[in-house]
Specification:
The chain is α+β, with helices and mostly antiparallel strands. The chain has one helix and four strands, in the order αββββ.
């Protein structure tokens, strides 16, 4: 579990550094990319707070031929809070079905 803005930034910086340390393959036609997509957002607003749930999936193309493949998938459960007129994440739990320690419980 990663908690707080600074910890989230550090987690993403570590992931990026790990990507950059991968050995390059044959000269690529295109750069490596990783993209996350969110879909089916279910949002419930109650005054100054809200909850949400969405499904996500990740595509990568870090193979030598740069063909895309599904890297991971799961869902997120979120809590939001309105602060000074802006909606901010109060809590986000990400479930990743590719990683046993992050998968949703049955």
């Amino acid at each position: 579990t990663v908690t707080g803005r600074a910890a989230i930034v550090a987690e993403m910086q570590q992931a990026r550094a790990a990507d950059l340390q991968r050995k390059p393959t044959e000269p690529p036609n295109r750069p490596r990319r990783r993209r996350h997509f969110s879909t089916n957002l279910d949002l419930n607003v109650a005054g100054e707070v809200a909850t949400g749930r969405s499904y996500w999936f990740e595509f990568n193309n870090d193979t030598p031929d740069r063909k895309p493949y599904l890297g991971a998938y799961g869902h997120s459960e979120d809590e939001y809070r309105r602060v000074d007129g802006r909606w901010l994440f109060a809590r986000r739990q990400i479930f990743n079905e590719q990683r046993a320690e992050m998968a949703a419980k049955e």
